[in-house]
Amino acid sequence: METTEKTPSLVKMFLKKMLQNKLACFGLLMIFLIVVLAIFAPLIATHQPNVMDTGATLLGPGQDGHLLGTDNYGRDLFSRIVYGSRISLIVGLGAVAVGSVIGILLGLVAGYFGGWLDSIIMRFMDALAAFPFILLAITLMTVLGTGLINVIIAVGIGNVPGFARMIRGQVLSVKEELFIEVTNSLGAKQARIIFIHILPNCLTPIIVYATMNVAGAIISEAALSFLGLGIQAPTASWGNILKEGKDYLIVAPHIAIFSGMFILLSVLGLNLFGDGLRDALDPKTRA
Amino acid sequence: MESAILLETQDLEKNYTLKKKTLFGKKAEVLQAVNKVSLAIHQGETLGIVGESGCGKSTFARLITRLIAPSGGKVFFDQKEITAMAQPEVRSLRKDIQMIFQDPYASLDPRKRVLAILTEPLEIHGIKTAKERRELAYEMLEKVGLQREHASRFPHEFSGGQCQRINIARALILRPRLVICDEPVSALDVSIQAQVLNLLLDLQEEFHLTYVFISHDLNVVRYFCDRIAVMYKGEIVESGDAETIYQAPVHDYTKKLLQAIPKSIESNEE
Fold first, then answer.
1. Chain A within 8 Å of B131 (Cβ-Cβ)?
2. What is the C-alpha to C-alpha distance for residues A160 and A97, in angstroms, rounded to an integer?
3. What is the rounded CA–CA span in Å between residue A145 and residue A224?
4. Which of A84, A95, B30, B215 is most buried, most CB within 10 Å of its CB?
5. Domains in chain B, ordered, with CATH?
6. pLDDT digits over A1-55, tens only?
7. Cβ of A182 and B124 within 8 Å?
8. Which residues of A touch B (CB under 8 A)?
9. Which of B59, B111, B133 best probes binding to A when mutated, by most A CB atoms within 10 angstroms?
């Protein structure tokens, strides 16, 4: 009975809005392609990503059956980029998950309870944010050691202050709204007020911010790998490939160009999608 | 015949300390928002509280629902002292005392559908099963003059008057005994005001409600209330039967308030 009474569900309304936005669809398509690359990497890759062929180094695109050419060890660049998408996506999503969960919890507590708790949490966040991100990541990577999980943790921690600040600001304005006082007057407990009323009303900018931060995290991973602190050779990650490519910019520019292009496309896709999300998630613009 | 007292306040006070910075450091200044208010509200009656903005009406409303803690004095509800209650007790007390606020839109969570808004009070107090809650919500929706189909909509799809009806439905779904209406119609068009007021009157009869009706509009209060208390600078300066106060005000401030009613409206009333 209820299903017949419902106006279009949230998901339907959201999809309708998203589909009307051409740029967001384009962004989503790019993200989708990269996700497909990552999931079906073994099926899509034409070669083993780490197998060297000293007879076929620095081949250009299309030569000898290598779609995007080979690198200085004769490894197939296309296959390396395909496998590298796995690392980029895992780091991007993982770091944002770590950063957003910790940041949202800290921001909610700081914003809702205020007072000394707020001061302690936010000054700590300020201190964390005051570190240049790369310096912070280098410190963390030195302490934690290299490796995929540690890259995720390091990049994730770098993301915490942004999320905490953003959600705290949202909480400060939302908690003064009348409907929060009304919920209080109904006899609701604080946990209900925080998680059922305040959090959902803070979430729109957070979702958009998180989407764009996935892009930022992908770049951070690339930067860390580029500096030799992130994913270690021979594992392929876009940052690693880019780093190796820089030594051969003159003789084999395709290495840096293609790996850089994939970073660019994924970041662009995520940003366009994030913009679309922002419009589609606003309940006031729902048709 | 006087019915039993439902809510009583004794010397209720609320002070706010304002810190002012002067040339020689900070100076604390005490603002008395509510000053020694003693009032009794009888079962089934409607008590109007009138006064200009900033006179402490809304603070008084929040004090008797214990949304804020008083600086002094006591509040008794059904002979229990609610000012002495601990938080969990206060929460269960909320079943009996509900509020309706001035701004109909801002009172509703913009991200929740009407059905979720209406079932929330029941959910909070763990009353009934999910299915029964939904049925009750539909029933309430019809009682306040809306339709079942409205249950799946979001607040922004409604007009101000409809939103206030939703607020009323939510306040009444717990079957409270006392409803505090804090300027419930002043944000609405005049034509809608009458509809909402009549709805409140009908519901009062049906559910045997007691109202505390806060307003700055003496015409509305006269139409709606049995008794009136006039509040000025945090104090009750005059209280009594609505018609008596309207016809023969004693306190200067009440006279001023009555004079301030635009003449054309008054002549329409006669």
1. no
2. 10
3. 12
4. A84
5. 5-269 (3.40.50.300)
6. 344 445 566 677 778 888 888 899 999 999 999 999 999 988 888 888 888 877 7
7. no
8. 2, 5-7, 177-179, 181-189, 192, 197, 200-201, 283-284, 286
9. B111
For residue B121, list chain A residues with Cβ-Cβ distance below 8 A.
186-187
Residues 172-201 of B with CB under 8 A from A: 174
CB atoms within 10 A of CB A241: 29
Interface test with B, best of A173, A177, A180, A185 (most B CBs within 10 A): A185
Give the separation between CA A114 and CA B174, rounded to whole angstroms: 32
* B85 touches A: beta carbon within 8 Å: no
Closest partner residue to B151 (CB to CB) among A5, A186, A188 is A5
Mean pLDDT over residues A157-170, rounded?
A: 94
Topology of domain A22-38+69-281 in CATH is MetI-like fold (1.10.3720)
Measure the CA–CA gap between B163 and B107, rounded to whole angstroms.
9
Asked if B151's CB is within 8 angstroms of A185's CB, the reply is: no
- Please give the Cα distance from B97 to B80 (Å, whole number): 13
CB pairs under 8 A between A and B: 68
Nearest to A179 among B90, B107, B156 (CB): B107
The DSSP secondary-structure symbol of A228 reads T
Sign for the CA dihedral angle at A225, A228, A232, A235 comes to: positive
| Spatial separation of the C-alpha atoms in residues B21 and B32, rounded to whole Å | 19
Spatial separation of the C-alpha atoms in residues A78 and A80, rounded to whole Å: 5
Query: With 0-12 CB in 10 A as exposed, 13-18 as middle and 19+ as buried, what is A211?
Result: buried
**CA A258 → CA A71, A92, A161, A246, B267, distances in Å?**
11, 19, 33, 12, 83
- Closest-CA residue to B54 (of B185, B193, B211, B214): B214
**CB hemisphere CA count around B58 (13 angstroms):** 12
List, for residues B139-158, the tens digit of each pLDDT value.
Answer: 999 999 999 999 999 998 89
**How is residue A70 annotated by DSSP?**
B
pTM: 0.81
β-bridge mates for residue A110, sequence order = none
